[in-house]
Amino acid sequence: MRLSDGKDIESGGLAGRLYRSVAPVGDVARPTYVLLHGIGVSHRYFARLHRELALAADVYSFDLPGFGDAPKPRRQVPVGEYAAFVRAALAEAGVTACVVIGHSMGTQHAVELALQEPELVAGVVLMGPVVDPRRKSVARQALALTRDAMFSESPSANAIVLADYFRAGPRWYFTELPVMMRYPLEARIRGVSQPLLVLRGSQDPVAGRDWCERLAAQAHQGSATEIPGHGHVFQHTAPGTVAAAITGWAPIRRRGPFPGA
After folding, report:
1. Any bridge partners for residue 18, and if so which?
2. CA–CA dist 91, 18 (Å, integer)
3. What 3 state SS string does the chain have?
4. How far is CA 190 from each of CA 80, 111, 209, 217, 254, rounded to the nearest angstrom?
5. Could you tell me how far CA 202 lies from the centroid of its own chain?
6. Residue of 56, 58, 51, 67 whose CA lies nearest to 90
7. Which of 2, 9, 95, 173 gives 20 to 30 Å between its CA and that of 66?
């Protein structure tokens, strides 16, 4: 599952691809959502959620450098540099206020973007955040992902994820894996002043309930919600439910991050 009309983007010596669904200038002001994928994958597992949100919002999805259709960097890229890459792409696209939505390792990029650009990021959504301290080794993380694929995901979700892993390749995946494993999400989240929502699938073995609730508690304005009956890739298996949870998120709506809100 792929979105159309992707645009190649470059910044800071990194190259990626941007997919956007934006209303024509002059239309009624709409919210803006930015979707950031996790390690090994691409915009494709966000495509259903992207389309759901685009019914009433401007939406931006990425193939971050090294993943999907984006070329692989020649060096390891830290989380903060990925966030800076997203920031530069959004600035070029004219985005001045948004809610950033990260999944899995993308939650780390989302938090860093919120810390780097508090005036740009009005709210943060963390979906299936990593790395749960109970899975702080690569072996335990791999076991949780395997359990998720075997027992909690649909065939189409597994097909997308596995195909994207294949495209990313083991060299680049294992180049970035240490970056993901050592990122101190719980500590960094304490600096996020914006409203923050943690979402997890109730059957997700990767992001445990206790971990997600603790992350929400660390944020200045945090809350946590579960998507019943779904696993780690719930944005693909329950896009309508996830879109409703995000768009109905009361703290974001009251904050009014969008023109006319």
Report:
1. 7, 62
2. 12
3. CCCCCCEEEEECCEEEEEEEECCCCCCCCCCEEEEECCCCCCHHHHHHHHHHHCCCCEEEEEECCCCCCCCCCCCCCCHHHHHHHHHHHHHHHCCCCEEEEEECCHHHHHHHHHHHCCCCEEEEEEECCCCCHHHCCHHHHHHHHHHHHHHCCCHHHHHHHHHHHHHHHHHHHHHHHHHHHHCCHHHHHCCCCCEEEEEEECCCCCCCHHHHHHHHHHCCEEEEEEECCCCCCHHHHCHHHHHHHHHCCHHHHHHCCCCCC
4. 16, 10, 19, 9, 22
5. 18
6. 58
7. 95
- pLDDT band for 255, please (50, 70, 90 cuts): very low
State pLDDT tens for residues 121-150: 999 999 999 999 988 899 999 999 999 999
Cα–Cα distance for residue pair 198/246, rounded to 1 Å? 10
The whole-number average pLDDT for the span 29-40 is 94
* Distance (Å, whole) CA 1 – CA 163: 11
Q: Cβ(122)–Cβ(99) under 8 Å?
A: yes
CA dihedral sign of residues 130, 132, 137, 140: negative
- Are the C-beta atoms of residues 223 and 216 closer than 8 Å to each other? yes
Question: Is this model's pTM higher than 0.90 or not?
Answer: yes
List pLDDT tens digits, range 38-66: 999 999 999 999 999 999 999 999 999 99
pLDDT, tens only, 85-98: 999 999 999 999 99
Q: Which two tokens stand for residue 242?
A: 């996830």
Amino acid symbol at 244? A
Dist CA 61 CA 95 (whole Å): 13
